[in-house]
Amino acid sequence: MTASISASVAIRPAIADDLAAVSEIYRHYVENTVATFDYESPTLDDWQAKLEAIADAGRPFLVADSADAGVVGFAYLGEFRSKAAYAKTTEDTIYVRQGFGGRGLGSALLSAVVEQADPDNVTQIVAVIAAEGGDGSIALHRRFGFDEVGRLTKVGRKFDRWIDVVYMQREIG
């Protein structure tokens, strides 16, 4: 399924050829922000394994593909926790290339992953958002029907400071 958010950007399923761009987008957030708690960016092999695991689980991994700039964002529904009882609960991930924010890409990506969440396979989507700098992501998730369900204080440490996280949740189906 491909959805267009403008004449020049389409939301479509990710393929292996997209992973170098996905990795570059994510690397910016790893090295410069607390949006992710990763200290090091995953390798291309890591991204390939993630793409395959998400596909095997029947969940969406999507990219925003610009006719002019290539892949400018991505989103997927990944595993929330590894224990069996959490199998139908997912955690969303959404990132947009630096310089491409404010164009509706995050909204288009979140809308598409929610729309493509199969209710037989996904019953809950959880967003885990760094409170510091996360106001935009929190507002985005609220617009798509996510409720704030919790806040954990000082659970992540990056760039020599403690970071709180906000948990948001939306039921599917």
A few lines on this structure:
The chain is α+β, with helices and mostly antiparallel strands and 173 residues long.
Structure, explained:
- The structure is a single chain.
- The protein is an alpha+beta fold.
- It has one domain: Gcn5-related N-acetyltransferase (GNAT) (Aminopeptidase, 3-Layer(aba) Sandwich).
- Helices cover 28% and strands 36% of the residues.
- It has an eight-stranded mixed beta sheet with strand order 1-2-3-4-5-6-8-7, with helices on both faces.
> How would you spell out the order of helices and strands?
EEHHEEEHEHEE
Q: In this structure, how is the largest beta sheet organized?
A: 8 strands, mixed
The helix/strand class is alpha+beta
CATH class value: Alpha Beta
What form results from the Cα inertia axes? globular
Share of helix, binned? 25-40%
Count helical runs. 4
CATH architecture: 3-Layer(aba) Sandwich
Which descriptors would you attach to this protein?
173 residues, alpha+beta, Aminopeptidase, eight-stranded mixed β-sheet, 4 helices, 8 strands
